[in-house]
Amino acid sequence: MVVAFDKCETRPASIDAILEGLDRYNPETTTVFQDYVAQQCEDRTFDCYANLALLKLYQFNPHLIHPETVTNVLVKALTVFPSPAFSLCLALLPPHTQPFPANAEAQASSQISDFVESVQKLARLSTLLESAQYAQFWSTLNSDDLYADLVADVAGFEELVRIRIAVEVGKAFRQISAEVLEQWLDLRSREALEKFVVEVCSWEIEKNGPNGTVIKVPTNKENEVRSEVKSERVDIDMFGRVLRRGFEQAA
Amino acid sequence: MSYEERANARPNLNDESDVEEEALVNDYREQVNFDDGMSELDRTTSLGGASQTQDLQAQLAAAATPLEYQATLETKFASYDNYCSLFHYILNSDGPVELEVPSYYWAWDVIDEFIYQFESFCRYRNRVARSGSNEEEAQLLRENPNTWGCYSVLNVLYSLIQRSQINEQLAAMKRGEDPLTVAGEYGSRPLYKMLGYFSIIGLLRVHCLLGDFSLALKTLDDIEMNKKAMFARVMAAHFTTYYYVGFSYMMMRRYGDAIRMFSHILVYVSRTKNFQKGGNSYDAIAKKNDQMYALIAICVALHPTRLDDTIHSALREKYGEQLNRLQHGGPEALPLFEELFRSACPKFISPTPPDFDNPSINVDPVDHHAAIFMDEVKNTLYNPTIRSYLKLYTTMDLKKLAGFLEVEPEKLRSWLLINKQRSRQVRWVEGALLEGEPVNANDLDYALDKDLIHVSETKAGRRLVDWYLRNLARVY
């Protein structure tokens, strides 16, 4: 059971009250939401629905846009991939941010603001994560100091992404070679990789196999992969027409 | 109610504690001032008491009537004015007003037309700014940033909802109680109830046009999506609701739910088609009909699923060749995805006035949303390829498959992860529209053991009951 999209377990009651009422449109609540984003960055929680409410306030009141908060919301949305969270955030940004510029060269030559550049850079990261190109994600992230600035406010950003990647790996793999995993997690030293795999993921390491070191992922619901035959679901509603017809005939 | 009474009633508006309504009042005042310069416009408020009733009738009728296609900017401003004064009269008179509305569908028509004009005004304003050619109109728009403002449009809708206590009424109905106990003075009257109800549908549409898809679905919390719902009594409302709910689901990547919504309404329409022919809304419905088939084609390509037989054959008929190309995937399918998306998506709007001084930075909101959607399509472009190959094997070596596909093993690993991730989807089971359970939406599943892919397929058992019932229906 997952929590419905509009709910969040870590959301304070005060924020909930704003979201439920018309105060979510009140420009004065912008600061409340901004503080809430800052808090999410700090304590590593994520509340997509509340952050979208803030982006909506910005959408209605463009003069209130606080660029750092917007990019922090986007960076937070990166840490929950694969999910529609990042696209839903982009959808509320001003169209001129053009997160996915059609023509990169034309963009580069024309003057774009720092804000637009940041949004485009983060969109690029999102694409890499959503398309499971984890090694490229890390190399892109490390290629430019601007990225370091963008993710600086989000506590444990790299750790959060690493855990997300590990979760996805755990769903698809029973065993994975250490060489692949260290690139995907950007843990270049073998000790760091082993530490992460054992301590954070509770997976096992099998050293000195015929194919080098291999990480074993314990069986879970997603990676066991069983064939099954789905049987037909039959409920009383399906017979409604036939039964009704029976009564009509009798009458 | 005489003109004097109405005039007296207006200062009372300032007592309204509701901030939203106050904003509406201010907006309205600005418009009245603006309008003073256009004496040729037929304005209710400037007329004497004698023609009041008759004039109100004209205003009611006008509110539900589409503007001419070539309406001038002045007409659009005046129409906004007309709505403001009408909604003011309905919402802020002393107590509920007694109105004889022209038709049963009036409440829907008014809300529908109100939002349509908001939508087309925003799009027109954006276009004027983008083209930068009509300096005169740009100036007029620049001077009136609050006309058809998003806040006033939302105010109207939310005020109608609050006045009629419609959400409370719907919640009571859901619990099996009598809605009249919570309806209050306003909500117990059909006019307010209907306006409130259709304002909820209106909000769904406005939020969707603004790109806030989760809030759009959240708006319908108290409405149950079934044929007994009130919107089902007005065909256009029924249709609109399912289109926007389906589209919002699609943008939240809940393709299974989107398909369910589109299929539901399309099956319904196909059954009632004969009644609709000749009706004046038939053309609009036929167009939306085609759009929804296009959206189903997109959703089915991104999320293969078994469709209802009626829908399946109609889809083959309308988009047969395109559907094949979409389902085949790969880079060649990209332009087609975009073309269909653009032809079938709502006409997205930007809620704030554009920058008239820099035409180039005003991007069409449709481009914005298409680009965001296309990014996801691009990310999942090779899912069909992966599926078609894996269907043939129970185990397969990754490097060997990479050789078949002529890609790097590293790339194939990514594709496998993507396909696996996208086959997990949230699907609605019960409760509000935003609720749902994660399910494996694909009958093909696999896991990697180092470089060995183990494939399993979930087979659907024979649907005997379904088969018997369908054949029984044919003869009995």
Give the SSE layout.
The complex is a heterodimer of chains A (251) and B (476).
Chain A: H1 13-20, H2 30-43, H3 48-60, H4 67-78, H5 85-91, H6 104-109, H7 114-130, H8 134-141, H9 145-151, H10 157-172, E1 173-177, H11 178-185, H12 190-200, E2 204-209, E3 212-216, E4 229-230, H13 240-250
Chain B: H1 3-12, H2 19-35, H3 52-63, H4 73-92, H5 106-131, H6 135-143, H7 150-164, H8 166-174, H9 180-187, H10 190-209, H11 213-219, H12 235-251, H13 255-276, H14 282-302, H15 309-328, H16 334-344, H17 365-379, H18 383-390, E1 395-397, H19 398-405, H20 409-423, E2 424-427, E3 437-440, E4 444-449, E5 452-457, E6 459-460, H21 464-475
Antiparallel strand pairs in B: 1-5, 2-3, 4-5
Helix pairs in contact in B: 2-4, 2-7, 3-4, 5-10, 7-10, 8-9, 10-11, 10-12, 11-12, 12-13, 12-14, 13-14, 14-15, 14-16, 16-17, 19-20
Count the beta strands of chain B: 6
Q: What is the CA-atom radius of gyration of chain B, in angstroms?
A: 26 Å
Helix amount of chain B, in percent? 55-70%
Overall, the morphology of chain A is: flat
Number of helices of chain A: 13
Alpha-carbon Rg of chain A, integer: 24 Å
% residues in beta strands of chain B: 5-15%
Biggest interface, chains and residues, is: A-B, 68 and 78 residues
Q: How far from one another are the termini of chain B?
A: 60 Å
